[in-house]
Amino acid sequence: MTDSLPLIFYDISSPIEPRSYAPNPSKARLALSFKGVPFKTTWVDILDISDVRKGLSCPATRKFDDGSDFYTLPMLRDPASGRVVGDSFDIANYLEDMFPDSGGCLFPPDSTRTGLDYESPNKDTAFFAPLTSNLGSKNEAYARFNTHVDATFSAHVVLVAQYLPFNPNTAEAVRALFVKRAHLRSWDDICATYADLIVGGWLNMLSATMPEEEWKDFRTWHSGVFARLHDALQENYFECK
Fold first, then answer.
1. Are residues 96 and 198 part of one domain?
2. Half-sphere exposure (CA, 13 Å, Cβ side) for 201?
3. Claim to verify: residue 76 and residue 165 sit in the same structural domain
4. Contact 42, 9 (CB under 8 A)
5. d(CA 199, CA 236)
6. Does a structural domain hold residue 115?
7. The GST N-terminal domain covers which part of the protein (predicted)?
């Protein structure tokens, strides 16, 4: 790997390029820069991911809940070795193995590992695309942490799903694909989980106790995501009788 022969990083294309948004590609992108490894990005539309992975003979590392392959990104191709790595955690291990003296150390042996024992309250949630455990991989304590953090955030992706930056020319087809994957009737057929109700309980208290102007301001935080959740739960589920 040199500046003239950089690693090829495959990320999900969107209207916000060259910035990316998907969490797992973002982990790998951060790791590449943290290690100071030269790379360039190949952008792939969501509808083309399976064909691109298959074309590089990169098997799926995840399965849908029906057992079928879930082809997703990131991928990393090393032109020097010909190696293709198709999982964000595997990419981190590959970078540390291949470039141990470049940049920072992703898995420092003298780390206190504080917080790596975090356990997600959503660890038993049944996702339509079950999370990668990476059990048995190198640096397994970090792999476990990755899975639990993914579970916590994945449980709340529904709060921002309506705002995912799909490419305009394929947006409708991508939404249809996501609806099929999630076993929904339509893009707007999104069901709450108990994780939403947990947050909703706190939002209900704040709505009843905060000064009116402060509550109005709070409702604008994070592009209004708390306000939308609060309003939906109040309208559909909050009964006092």
1. no
2. 5
3. no
4. yes
5. 15
6. no
7. 12-103
Of the three residues 107, 124, 150, the one that is the final residue of a domain is 107
CATH number of the domain that 99 lies in? Answer: 3.40.30.10
In this structure, the answer to whether residues 103 and 6 fall within a common structural domain is yes
Tell how far CA 125 is from the center of its chain: 15
Phi/psi at 12 (5° precision): -80, 125
Q: Which amino acid is at 190?
A: I
Asked whether residue 1 carries a pLDDT value surpassing 60, the answer given is no
Sorted by sequence, the CB contacts under 8 Å of residue 89 that are 6+ apart come out as 27, 132, 134, 137, 142, 143, 146
Residues 53 and 13 in one domain: yes
Smallest CA-to-CA distance from 126 within 145, 149, 146, 154 is with 154
Question: Over 60: is that where the pLDDT of 21 sits?
Answer: yes
How many structural domains is the chain composed of?
Answer: 3
39, β-bridge pairs: 7
What is the distance between the alpha carbons of residues 163 and 176, in angstroms, rounded to a whole number?
Answer: 15
Residue 177: closest CA among 47, 62, 74, 54: 47
Q: What is the pTM of this model?
A: 0.79
Among 11, 32, 30, smallest CA distance to 22 is for: 11
The tens digit of pLDDT for each residue in 158-187 reads: 878 888 999 999 999 999 999 999 888 888
**135 in a domain, yes or no?**
no
Co-location of 21 and 81 in the same domain = yes
| CB-based contact 118:148 (threshold 8 Å) | yes
User: In a 10 Å sphere around its CB, with 0-12 CB exposed, 13-18 middle and 19+ buried, how is residue 122 labelled?
Assistant: buried
